[in-house]
Structures are given as structure tokens and as C-alpha cells.
TrEMBL record:
Pfam families: Glyco_trans_4_4, Glycos_transf_1. GO terms for molecular function: glycosyltransferase activity. This is Glycosyltransferase involved in cell wall biosynthesis. The lineage of its organism: Bacteria, Bacillati, Actinomycetota, Actinomycetes, Geodermatophilales. The keyword Amino-acid biosynthesis does not apply.
Length: 380
């Protein structure tokens, strides 16, 4: 066998967001040539993932909580009735999955692969030991960036256990004209616009962007800063914008299913994250031909080329973030040049097809060997 005939994708995430989009891109790439299925939690926040996977041709399996007595029988029952050549698990750090890969192995799946979407930043020794127990049944770990991979190697995961497959996204099929995108967001045709996309969370750290707005407004009085996304920090961020006196310039647009279309409204894309695996939002902005100003953190620093496709600034320094945004807002020619370079970089290395091909190569390699090499590392 040179490649899988059937793949079962699985995520235990209760809020898959970017990880879910990644899984859908893989399903779209494999569907039609391979029998695909998806197991995901049965929750309001995950229903979109199950629905979209079904539209793409995957058989979907809604799962109860891993603590529910039905969880094990549902997983093993499906895999026994519909055997998968590859069980492909998608997790953040892996600490959220205690049972999926173990059950897949017990059900007889010949290849079990786990993609790590977030860097390992946990400090608890107990959680670290639990992580090593969780990956024991796994044949291969996939890291979505080289920097992410190094965070796992530092805690004792053998380098040979990992393959790095950088994230990729499909090109947007139909673009929204700039004027329509701006109209949809209530923006004027000629005002400067900084836009960011992401859940409003501590990890995405939109507070840094808001802290930069007062100085930006002093230079660009008609500036609009648009936050696409929702999350637990929305109320705090709205309060922050008010306390900074910039509420009129900041637009909280909420979650939008057409977020990629609305990128056309932006002059510059901002990504002030505390940490990333490899940010899909930055890739989407690059695909749209936008320069990206991001923090120099794991994942982002492998996407953005400082001074070429945008700028990288230290995390926790809003003044430097604002200065980088101001340079681009003040120079239309620089924006165009760096935006074009960003799109070329996307096309050269961050497409969905490239990601799917490299993932398929991992599956084929493991299916050829058939015998599973144990991941024998121990916590450092």
C-alpha cells in the first residue's frame, strides 16, 4: 500500500477555531480520492466543523465528552465498523486528549498520527508526564512549525518522533471588492484601516494592538482598527478601548464567517499574539496580498519576513507594534510592495496543496513500514 484508502480525522477540542479550519482543509484535499471521516465533540461550538466536514464529503461522528461512558464505545464502534488506515488526531498541546489515540490503537488502526497545533509552554511536571503517556500510542507527531517542534524537543520528545509540516491554506475562490468589504464593515472608502482576525483571548493578545491606537490616532486621525472575532476578552477589550479614549476608532465586528472576504477592507494586517503554532490568520492575510505586522513569537516568525512581507516586533511592546503599523500606513508604495511579497511567499510555501502532499507523504511512509516505532522519549 503506498497511501491510505481511509483516514479518520479526530479532534477532542471543545473550541477548534483555527485547528478546525486546518482539519477542513485536509478533508477537502483528501476527499474524493480517499474515504474520509471526522470525529469531533458534539457541542454548539463544534457543530460548524461537523457540518462543514459533512458538506465536503466526510462521514461525521459527533462525540460525547471523553468522561462520558458512551465515548469509548462510540469511537471503537465506528472504527470497528469502518476501519481506517490512518487515525489523524489534531490537538493543541496534546494535554486535552487522553483517550482518542489509545482507543484508535486498540481498535486496530495501523497508523496513528497526531498533529500539534500549539507550542508546549506548560510548566507542570505532572502535565508533562501525562503528555508523554498520551503520545505513547502515536506513530508520528506532526508539528505545524519548526519553532513549535523545538518546544517539544526541549521537554524530551525525540527529534525523530516529529515531522514538520507547515500550515497551508486554500486560495480564496471569490474575492470581495475593496469598496464592498469596507461598506460591509461600515468603513469609509478612503480612511486608513488596520485589521486583525482571531478569537479575543489572552493568547491572541489584542490588548497590545489597542494600546498602540492612541499614538496611531495622533498621526492618522481617521484611522479605523477592526477586530474580527469574538471570545472571552471582548468585554475587557471594549472597556480598554473606552479607557484609552479610542472607542470611536475601534470596531468590534464579532465573529464573521466571511472574515477572509473582509480582509479586502484592510490596508495592513496586525497579529499581536502572545504565542502561535503557525497562524492561519497571517497566511490568509498574505494570500490576500496584505503586509502583516506580527509579534516575534513561535510560528509567526516563520511566516512573516521582517522588512519584506511586513514587520516583526517584540511581544509586549505596543509602541513598537504601533510604529511598525505607522510606517506602513504612511507609505502606500511600501504597503503595495510588501503586500505583493507576502502573496508571493504564500504561493511559494503555504498552500493547502503543499500541506496535503507533505501530510500524505507521512501517511505513506508509515503505512509502508507497518511496524510502529515507539515514541520512547521521557520528560526532560
Amino acid at each position: 500500500m503506498t497511501g491510505p484508502r481511509s483516514i479518520c480525522f479526530y479532534t477532542p477540542s471543545t473550541d477548534p477555531s483555527g485547528m478546525g479550519a486546518h482539519v477542513l482543509d485536509l478533508i477537502a484535499a483528501f476527499a474524493g480520492t480517499v474515504d474520509v471521516s471526522l470525529m469531533a465533540r458534539e457541542l454548539p461550538r463544534t457543530q460548524w466543523l461537523l457540518d462543514r466536514a459533512g458538506e465536503l464529503g466526510a462521514e461525521t461522528v459527533p462525540l460525547p465528552s471523553p468522561r462520558h461512558p458512551r465515548f469509548g464505545p462510540v469511537v471503537t464502534g465506528f472504527l470497528s465498523a469502518r476501519p481506517a488506515d490512518v487515525f489523524h488526531c489534531h490537538v493543541g498541546t496534546g494535554s486535552e486528549d487522553w483517550d482518542g489515540v489509545r482507543l484508535a490503537r486498540s481498535a486496530g488502526c495501523p497508523v496513528v498520527v497526531q498533529t500539534q497545533h500549539l507550542p508546549y509552554l506548560l510548566s507542570s511536571p505532572r502535565r508533562r508526564h501525562a503528555y508523554f503517556r498520551a503520545i505513547a500510542p502515536v506513530d508520528r507527531l506532526i508539528a505545524v512549525s519548526a519553532g513549535l517542534r523545538r518546544t517539544y524537543e526541549r521537554i524530551g520528545v525525540p527529534s525523530g518522533s516529529f515531522t514538520t509540516v507547515p500550515n497551508g491554506i486554500a486560495p480564496l475562490v471569490q474575492r470581495l471588492p475593496r469598496a464592498e468589504a469596507r461598506q460591509a464593515l461600515g468603513l469609509e472608502a478612503d480612511q486608513p484601516v488596520v485589521l486583525t482576525v482571531g478569537r479575543l483571548t489572552h493568547m491572541k493578545a489584542q490588548w497590545q494592538l489597542l494600546d498602540a491606537v492612541p499614538d496611531l490616532l495622533a498621526r492618522f486621525p481617521r484611522l479605523a482598527v477592526v477586530l474580527l472575532g469574538d471570545g472571552p476578552l471582548r468585554e475587557a477589550l471594549v472597556e480598554q478601548a473606552g479607557s484609552l479614549g479610542v472607542a470611536s476608532a475601534v470596531r468590534f465586528a464579532g465573529h464573521r464567517s466571511d472574515a477572509r472576504q473582509l480582509l479586502a477592507a484592510a490596508d495592513v494586517f496586525a497579529l499581536p499574539s502572545r504565542c502561535e503554532g503557525m497562524p492561519l490568520a497571517a497566511l490568509e492575510a498574505m494570500e490576500a496580498g496584505l503586509p502583516v505586522v506580527a509579534t516575534r513569537v513561535v510560528g509567526s516568525e516563520e511566516v512573516v519576513v521582517d522588512g519584506v512581507t511586513g514587520a516583526l516586533v517584540p511581544f509586549g511592546r505596543p509602541a513598537e507594534l504601533g510604529a511598525a503599523l505607522a510606517r506602513l500606513l504612511a507609505d502606500p508604495a511600501l504597503r503595495r510592495r510588501q503586500g505583493a511579497a507576502a502573496r508571493r511567499r504564500y504561493l511559494a510555501g503555504f498552500t493547502r496543496d503543499r500541506m496535503a502532499q507533505e501530510t500524505a507523504a507521512v501517511f505513506a511512509e508509515l503505512l509502508r513500514t507497518a511496524a510502529r516505532p515507539a515514541l520512547t522519549g521521557s520528560p526532560a
